[in-house]
Design brief:
The chain has 545 residues and is of the alpha/beta class. The chain folds into three domains: 1-133, Substrate Binding Domain Of Dnak, Chain:A, Domain 2; 223-353, Rossmann fold, CATH 3.40.50; 375-544, 3-Layer(aba) Sandwich (Rossmann fold), CATH 3.40.50.2030. The protein is 45% helix and 10% strand. The strands form four sheets. It has a six-stranded parallel β-sheet with strand order 4-3-2-5-6-7. A five-stranded parallel β-sheet has the order 13-10-9-14-15, with helices on one face. It is globular, with a radius of gyration of 23 Å. Bound molecules: iron/sulfur/oxygen hybrid cluster (FSO) and iron/sulfur cluster.
Length: 545
């Protein structure tokens, strides 16, 4: 196997025996083959679209399959075997559609569009088509950068899709870009252009998801979230899917079972629609990587709606439930919606009733809900604070948290920032500093949490609004610095989205992606001023200069 798609990749260069994330070799290979399969489907999908053929089932299949290969989403080999088999069937159907519509199938099609094999040969095939099959390291780097960006786009598109928001242009781009990663005639420059185009679609998909979320559940608003526990049996919901949460809250209402959020589900508390559920108690624990301890002490069933799942320990594995693209062998899976009917959480709720209430691990409250609507409502106050010099600088510290000790940098950085600065955050990166008592500036908290990682879009909207209010030409003239932490592929699309909005000088850590070749890093440095991190003291000096 060879995988280097996340920040925790072995030695910063690639996992070759087993994933640091726990992904076994067979799953890694099957994921590679699935991606290859998707590229082959995309070749026909592009041609089909030109002929006016629309296959929503193909769009959905590609979107969900990409999402299922994101770090910490699915570790279940059988699910990937099924997907590849389904994908081969879909590819053939699409080819026939093209032929029926009068399309001519090119003779020299890429192997991705023609190969076929029984399941018993999938792993052997995968060895030939993985990441390292592209020999030129710069082309490989750009192809993977694009593919990981597409995984991020797919994840956000899937959340919007669940709420019935979709855009044909996003699917068309995913398919065009997947097919382009097979095209040996594209030069590095073409791939760089495609990478930036992915960023543009990153902005679009995050805007779409923002619309889906706020139209369905209202605009996030300033909220105090309880981090203690009550004395009832309870379910812990994690991941990013708000529709799953909504249905769970409806079904647990009046059942005597409480619901708590974990990790990236915390921002659900900021939405008005969920506040009416009095069994929606609070947030339990921290970012994804702490789940091994926190799922243990939660005592009740845990429901994973998306990544990040850490391979569960035997001591609590029977309490873990997955749904959607998430999966782990031997873990119970909640079936999809059929004909628009809600998912059935009866088993989860009954299970909860047999469990003790959660063990308290902390008490108090955290404050959040500073998505664009709430911040813009406070715009006068914020603008005044900037004009009077009460706020000297904003720091966008969005992205992910992770296991590495080097991520202490972000907590230390937050603590060391001058008191006249404000942190704008989104994603699970926030857990490094959202429980520090950093105070406020004239009533404006010094950590403004917009929400999940996709709500980084909100931070861009806020920046654009400030640019307008201050009458600036360029977003980079604002007193905003970007110190972003990344872990998995959604963070890749967030980064590309910021680049496409013209944001320069983003610092990325705790390490630069292992999949960026030295030449690709140079392109990012020269054109966008991308940089890594050094020490807290040096970086603060640099940012405040
Ligand atoms: Fe975190 Fe995991 Fe939201 Fe990621 S929970 S690391 S960028 O999946 O998606 O922020
Ligand atoms: Fe390694 Fe990350 Fe790939 Fe897991 S997702 S195998 S940790 S690079």
């Amino acid at each position: 196997m060879f995988c280097y798609q996340c920040q925790e990749t072995a030695k910063g260069t690639g996992c070759t025996v087993k994933g640091v994330c726990g992904k076994p070799e067979n799953v890694a290979k099957l994921q590679d083959l699935l991606i290859y399969n998707l590229k082959g489907i995309a070749v026909y999908a592009v041609q089909a679209r030109e002929l006016g053929i629309v296959r929503p089932d193909v769009d959905k299949f590609i979107m969900e399959s990409l999402f299922s290969t994101i770090t910490n989403a699915n570790f279940d080999a059988s699910r990937f075997v099924e997907r590849i088999q389904d994908g081969l069937k879909l590819r053939e159907e699409l080819k026939q559609d093209v032929i029926k519509a009068g399309g001519v199938i090119p003779v020299n099609l890429n192997d991705a569009a023609t190969w076929t094999a029984p399941a018993s040969e999938f792993e052997a095939k995968a060895v030939l088509v993985g990441v390292l099959a592209t020999e030129n390291e710069d082309v490989r780097s750009l192809r993977e950068l694009i593919t990981y960006g597409l995984k991020g786009i797919a994840a956000y598109a899937e959340h919007a899709y669940t709420l019935e928001y979709k855009e044909a242009g996003i699917f068309a781009f995913i398919e065009k870009a997947l097919a382009a990663t097979l095209d040996d005639t594209l030069a590095a420059g073409d791939l760089v252009a495609l990478t930036l185009e992915a960023g543009k679609y990153g902005v679009e998909v995050m805007a779409l998801l923002d619309k889906a979320n706020t139209t369905s559940y209202g605009n996030p608003e300033l909220t105090k979230v309880n981090i203690g526990v009550r004395n009832n049996p309870a379910i812990l919901i994690s991941g990013h899917d708000l529709k799953d949460l909504e249905e769970l809250l409806i079904q647990t209402k009046g059942s005597g079972v409480d619901v708590y959020t974990h990790g990236e589900m915390l921002p659900a508390h900021y939405y008005p629609a969920f506040k009416k559920f009095d069994n929606f108690v609070g947030n339990y624990g921290n970012a994804w990587h702490k789940q091994v301890k926190e799922f243990e002490s939660f005592n009740g069933p845990i429901f994973l709606t998306t990544n990040c799942l850490v391979p569960p320990k035997d001591s609590y594995k029977d309490r873990v439930y997955t749904t959607g693209v998430v999966g782990f062998e031997g873990v119970k899976h909640i079936a999809e919606r059929v004909d628009g009917r809600p998912k059935d959480f009866a088993a989860l709720i009954e299970h909860a009733k047999t469990c003790p209430s959660p063990t308290e691990i902390e008490t108090g409250e955290i404050v959040g809900g500073f998505a664009h609507n709430q911040v813009i409502a406070l715009a006068d106050k914020v603008v005044d604070a900037v004009k009077t010099g009460a706020i000297k600088r904003f720091f966008v510290m969005a992205g992910c948290d992770g296991r590495m000790k080097s991520r202490d940098y972000y907590a230390d950085f937050a603590k060391a920032l001058p008191k006249d600065t404000v942190i704008l955050t989104a994603g699970c990166a926030k857990y490094q500093y959202n429980k520090l008592d950093l105070g406020d500036i004239g009533g404006i908290p010094r950590v403004l949490d917009a929400g999940q990682c996709n709500d980084s879009y909100s931070l861009a909207v806020i920046a654009l609004k400030l640019k307008e209010v201050f009458g600036l030409e360029d977003i980079n003239q604002l007193p905003i610095s970007y110190n972003i932490a990344w872990y998995e592929q959604k963070a890749v699309i967030v980064l590309l989205a910021l680049l496409s909005l013209g944001v320069k000088n983003i610092h990325l850590g705790p390490t630069l992606p292992g999949f960026l070749s030295p030449n690709v890093v140079n392109v990012l440095v020269e054109n966008f001023g991308i940089a890594g991190i050094s020490s807290v003291e040096e970086d603060i000096k640099l940012f405040m200069a």
